[in-house]
Amino acid sequence: MKLSQLDHVALTVTNPLKFAEWYQSVSGLERRYQEVLDDYPVVVGVGSTCIALFPSLVTLPAEPPERNETITMRHLAFKSDWANFLKV
């Protein structure tokens, strides 16, 4: 199997629509696939890479474990020029 690129990352958030609006207004991501997805995930993207936002069943995150004592996603990074990075 040979992959061509990263397609999307899935995140669980308290309010997918609110997070999508934030990504749209602050980072300029576009809302995608509304016409084929019923409710969730809410998908936003730039270029050919997306973020799929799923609703959480809890409103507060769990207490974070000590560094390197769990398997987790550490961060999600976007590429930009310095001027746009400073705007965010």
Summarize the structure.
The protein is an alpha+beta fold and 88 residues long. The protein has helices at 16-27, 82-87, and strands at 8-13, 30-32, 42-46, 49-55. It has one domain (1-56, 77-88): 2,3-Dihydroxybiphenyl 1,2-Dioxygenase, domain 1.
Structure, explained:
By secondary structure, this protein is α+β, with helices and mostly antiparallel strands. It has a single domain, classed as 2,3-Dihydroxybiphenyl 1,2-Dioxygenase, domain 1 (Roll), CATH 3.10.180.10. Helices cover 20% and strands 24% of the residues. It contains 2 helices and 4 strands. The N and C termini lie far apart (37 Å).
Give the tags.
single chain, 88 residues, alpha+beta, 2,3-Dihydroxybiphenyl 1,2-Dioxygenase, domain 1, 4-stranded mixed sheet, 4 strands
CATH architectural grouping: Roll
Please state the overall shape, judged from the principal axes of the Cα atoms: globular
Structural class: alpha+beta
The total count of helices amounts to: 2
The helical percent reads: 10-25%
Q: Could you name the CATH topology?
A: 2,3-Dihydroxybiphenyl 1,2-Dioxygenase, domain 1
Q: From the alpha carbons, calculate the radius of gyration and give it in angstroms.
A: 15 Å
Domains counted in the coordinates: how many? 1
